[in-house]
Design a protein that fits this description.
alpha/beta; 874 residues; 8-stranded mixed β-sheet; 9% strand; 4-stranded antiparallel β-sheet
């Protein structure tokens, strides 16, 4: 038997066939790599914000560290792969390293937490000092994995690119494929994996995929045909070196393109920050909204990169192409401004959509459409910039790894600076609209310089192009500059027809104060009302202050408040004999708005006993070693992005460590915004940390409050009576119809055993399984249903406060009289709560019958009067 003779031409044919198959496999693997990369960004950002806090400075520090590592990886591994002979081996090692770190990161984060807490407690370094420490620590822990990720693009391009005339196609194709993978990673992590598997487990899945990619690439690299292809690459490049030099752009053009792509990255990320700040008003401020915005942004980038890839290698006037692209980015960004100012909120667009199992998907689709309406054209143009700049900058295909690493690094670093400058300087100083116009102007200037530098065009043609596009962008920008700044308005604010009194686009959030023209003022953060002068707002603000102080048996307690709002809770706490009050507020502009609510906060900021701490409430609980007797958590809805961590088991356990032995914790539970399952989940989570928990209505029964104590709650009737007799406390509570202890005790819902039965076997909301934040927020569509169902369930589980009462009276007669009043009030409020439910259903006559029954049992039960006022006849 003789070996089959293979002609040289046949061997080449076989090699090329094998190469085509390998390229297709590598494209699929690079797609998966992109998905893993964005998964890590989402997951590690969540983990690190739990350590450093959710402030704008902390999150920017984390992002800067992550992207800094990516840039370093692009530069370093681009040079490494240019020195070696086998880019597939380097790529496999990079993917394997990323996968290994996916499994190591939780352990590293745990050690990082201990270091950070120790530094924060023992070194008085101030705000900027701690910011630098955060930067150093986050960079330290993210350096290696982010560097490995940053190296994948130049390394894999090194394998694909053999000839200069196909460079643009391969760069555009690979960049698009990786970015489409990033789209999938963002969607799957944000909508599925974190909810179904957990945060750590999502990272582990991505790590397994990275290891799988590494294994497949190593297996491919061992195949003889593939090894022959890899081994012949250096000889092919040497052979084509003369042709490459003839085709390459000049050194001047290359450096100009590098500067342009850096500034383009700066502008792109700055625009993303502006669009995100604006779009949350129309989409909602949930985690899923941010996921949708990022997805839409990446889709545009990927589409643009793929589109230009087909044309970039056939055109020699690439400086003009890149310049025109930059000018059009600026023009399209400005033209998108009216979409931002006139878009109806997405849930308003879905007002007629039926409530069914498909509603979350329809909602997600509408969010995506709204995001694309603003970002699609400019992001598609942004996606074209990277392949164009790469084609110009890479002057020697034998050094493609180094050159592409430089382009990638400069673009990434530009993006870091763009996001920081936009978030910390431009938005606070000139606002979203003017910021967009300024960044668009930079894009136009970049474009004009590039077009004027194009050697392949006649000077007159270059001048005509620049003048024409410049006039277009200038006239559009001037129009919007002179037409007045847009004021972003959400669904919640729009239904009030507000008159805006104060509007500040500050660092981290947009804060607005508006008058609803009924005489009430409201404070909103990113479109979500958080505090104000309305009776419903006073109901929760005063309850979070007075409920814990009335129940506390600690003389001169130390108090910690999480959330300042309009200052109503802070002022309420100061009406008692407190030793000190530490209030933590995340958003600086919220504090600045306090002057609009003098009747609510009464200038509490100037009280020497009151200490305002600007930062993240959870982070403060992590790093402080202070002990408190009362902690009041005025967190906003757990459905808002980042707020779920304030309803997590780990947060409650941190607060338990901060409480004294006789201390107590209270937290708002917004049952009108949550499903029955979610309400029970919060109760179960709270009970896990505080087994001795009770549940209370706010005085007007608009909300409920969880109260956690170290031991079983004992309500000292005599102490309660004395506090309620204080004139300043009476002034605060009389508008809420709380004038004596019986009125206060009538708000009791259930004790620890009943609350445990109510919570049942509900899931526990944790940092690793953040159900509350990742289950779609449906209250926009079914808030009435949520409220009614939860109110019914609470009423069915409700019990009398009597077993928790102590020190009721000195004589049996007095004790009996108090017990009788407490029991009557309980029975009466059961009927008035039933009346509340019927009234909300529009059943006026039946509601009035229940209210009359309540009055017959206890003529002093009068909180239902406020319910009538709040919910008039329909």
């Amino acid at each position: 038997m003789t070996d089959k003779h293979i002609e040289p031409s046949e061997e080449v044919s076989i090699s090329r066939s094998q190469e085509g198959t390998v390229r297709l496999v590598i494209l699929v693997l690079f797609f998966l790599s992109g998905a893993c990369g964005l998964t890590y960004e989402v997951v590690w950002m969540r983990m690190l914000t739990l350590v450093f806090g959710a402030t704008a400075f902390a999150t920017s520090t984390i992002l800067a560290s992550f992207f800094g590592g990516l840039a370093l990886g692009g530069v370093y591994f681009g040079r490494v792969v240019d020195k070696g002979r086998n880019p597939l081996l380097v790529y496999a090692l990079l993917e394997a390293g990323i996968g290994i770190f996916a499994f190591l990161m939780p352990l590293l984060f745990s050690g990082l937490t201990e270091i950070y807490v120790s530094i924060s407690r023992h070194l008085a370094v101030g705000f900027y000092g701690i910011s630098l420490i955060r930067l150093a620590l986050s960079f330290l822990v993210l350096l290696i994995p982010a560097t490995l990720m940053g190296g994948t693009l130049p390394v894999i391009i090194k394998f694909f690119v053999t000839r200069q005339e196909r460079l643009g196609w391969h760069v555009g194709q690979l960049y698009a494929v990786n970015t489409f993978g990033a789209v999938v990673g963002t969607l799957t992590a944000g909508f599925f994996f974190i909810l179904m598997l957990g945060v750590k487990e999502t990272a582990y899945v991505a790590g397994f995929v990275n290891l799988l990619i590494a294994g497949v690439v190593l297996a491919l690299g061992r195949r003889p045909a593939v090894r022959r292809v890899v081994d012949t690459r250096p000889r092919e490049r040497e052979k084509d070196r003369k042709e490459i030099r003839e085709e390459a752009f000049s050194s001047k053009a290359a450096h100009l393109a590098l500067w342009a792509i850096g500034l383009s990255g700066f502008c792109a990320l700055a625009l993303e920050v502006f669009w995100t700040r604006a779009l949350v008003f129309f989409l909602d401020n949930s985690t899923h909204a941010f996921t949708t915005i990022l997805t839409a942004f990446l889709v545009g980038i990927a589409v643009g990169s793929l589109l230009i890839a087909r044309f970039v290698d056939t055109n020699r006037k690439l400086l003009a192409w890149l310049g025109s692209t930059e000018i059009l980015i600026g023009v399209s960004a400005i033209l998108a401004i009216p979409i931002l100012s006139n878009s109806p909120p997405v849930f308003q667009s879905m007002a007629d959509v039926s409530v069914d199992s498909m509603l979350p998907w329809k909602w997600m689709g509408m969010r995506f459409v709204n995001s694309l309406a603003v970002m699609l054209v400019p992001t598609v143009l942004m996606g074209m910039a990277f392949p164009l700049a790469s084609k110009i900058y890479v002057r020697n295909v034998n050094r493609v790894g180094t050159a592409l690493g430089n382009v990638y690094a400069v673009n990434t670093i530009g993006g870091v600076f763009g996001s920081v400058v936009a978030g910390f300087a431009l938005i606070p100083l000139i606002g979203v609209q003017n910021g967009i116009i300024l960044i668009a102007a930079i894009n136009v200037i970049i474009g004009c310089v590039l077009v004027l530098s194009e050697p392949g065009m006649q000077y007159r043609m270059r001048l005509v192009t620049v003048v024409g596009l410049g006039l277009l962008s200038g006239s559009v920008g001037t129009f919007y500059l002179t037409s007045g700044a847009i004021i972003l308005t959400s669904y919640y604010e729009e239904i009030e027809s507000p008159e805006v009194l104060s509007y500040e686009e500050g660092i981290g959030a947009t804060v607005k104060v508006y008058d609803d023209r009924v005489g009430d003022r409201t404070l909103s953060v990113n479109g979500f009302p958080v505090a104000g002068t309305a009776l419903t707002m006073q109901d929760i603000q005063r309850a979070l202050a007075h409920l814990p102080l009335l129940l506390s048996n600690v003389p001169s307690p130390r108090v910690n408040i999480v959330g300042f709002g309009s200052g109503g809770t802070s002022w309420g706490v100061m009406q008692y004999d407190v030793a000190a009050v530490d209030c933590v507020e995340l958003v600086p502009a919220v504090v600045a708005a306090a002057g609009w609510f003098p009747e609510t906060n009464h200038g509490v900021l100037s009280d020497p006993r009151f200490n305002l701490i600007r930062g993240d409430g959870r982070n403060y609980a992590l790093v402080t070693d202070e002990e408190y007797d009362v902690i009041s958590v005025d967190a906003t809805s757990p459905k808002m992005a980042g707020n779920g961590s304030l309803y997590a088991l780990e947060f409650y356990e941190l607060l338990k460590e901060r409480l004294s032995n006789d201390g107590l914790l209270v937290q708002w539970l917004p049952f009108h915004l949550l499903s029955d399952r979610e309400v029970r989940m919060i109760a179960k989570t709270f009970l896990t940390a505080f087994p001795h928990s009770t549940l209370w209505f706010t005085p007007l029964r608009q909300y409920v409050i969880l109260v956690g104590t170290q031991e079983s709650l004992e309500v000292d009737f005599q102490s309660l009576s004395g506090k309620l007799a204080m004139s300043n406390v009476q002034r605060e509570l009389e508008p809420l119809n709380v004038t004596d202890p019986i009125d206060f005790l009538g708000s009791f819902v259930m004790g620890e055993e009943a609350l445990a039965r109510y919570a049942g076997d509900a899931d526990i909301n944790t940092d690793n399984r953040p159900y509350l934040e990742f289950v779609p927020a449906m209250a926009y569509f079914v808030s009435d249903m949520y409220l009614l169902r939860n109110l019914r369930n609470l009423m069915d589980s409700r019990e009398s406060v009597f077993p928790s009462l102590i020190n009721i009276g000195e004589t049996n007669e007095k004790i009996a009289a108090v017990v009788e009043r407490v029991q009557k009030r309980f029975e009466a409020t059961q009927h008035s709560i039933s009346g509340d439910i019927l009234l909300r259903l529009g059943m006026q006559e039946q509601a009035e019958a229940e209210y009359n029954t309540a009055l017959q049992i206890d003529p002093q039960e009068k909180n239902w009067l406020n319910t009538i006022w709040l919910y008039p006849r329909r």
